């Protein structure tokens, strides 16, 4: 994984070993990183932003 890789909701789910539906809810939280790319049916997040968010412990809230 490179920091500048772009992840979909499914990628976030896979990284966290959670369901895609749970990842959708997580990605919609106010404290989750903003997507760097948006389209009508999906968003994409920079992998480094998601990893930093995880290291910051925000997923536990």
Quick gist of this model?
The chain has helices at 9-16, 20-27, 47-55; strands at residues 6-7, 37-39, 42-46.
Polypeptide structure, described:
The protein has a 3-stranded antiparallel beta sheet. Strand 2 (37-39) and strand 3 (42-46) form a beta hairpin. It has 61 residues and is α+β, with helices and mostly antiparallel strands. It is globular and about 30 Å long. Helix 1 packs across helix 2 (20-27). It has helices at residues 9-16, 20-27, 47-55, and strands at residues 6-7, 37-39, 42-46. The model has no long low-confidence stretch (mean pLDDT 92). The protein starts with 5 loop residues before the first strand and ends in a 6-residue tail after the last helix. It contains 3 helices and 3 strands; from the N terminus they run E-H-H-E-E-H.
User: Main sheet: which strands, in order across?
Assistant: 1-3-2
Number of strands: 3
Low-pLDDT parts are: none
Question: Helical segment tally?
Answer: 3
Compute the separation of the termini in Å: 25 Å
Name the structural class.
alpha+beta
β-strand amount: 15-25%
Rounded to the nearest angstrom, the radius of gyration is 11 Å
Mean pLDDT: 92
Give helix % range.
40-55%
How would you spell out the order of helices and strands?
EHHEEH
Largest sheet: 3 strands, antiparallel
Given the C-alpha coordinates, what overall shape results?
Answer: globular
């Amino acid at each position: 994984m490179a920091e500048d890789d772009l992840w979909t909701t499914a990628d976030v789910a896979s990284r966290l070993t959670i369901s895609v539906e749970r990842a959708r809810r997580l990605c919609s939280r106010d404290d989750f990183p903003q997507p760097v790319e948006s389209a009508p049916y999906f968003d994409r997040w920079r992998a480094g932003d998601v990893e930093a968010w995880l290291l910051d412990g925000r997923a536990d809230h």
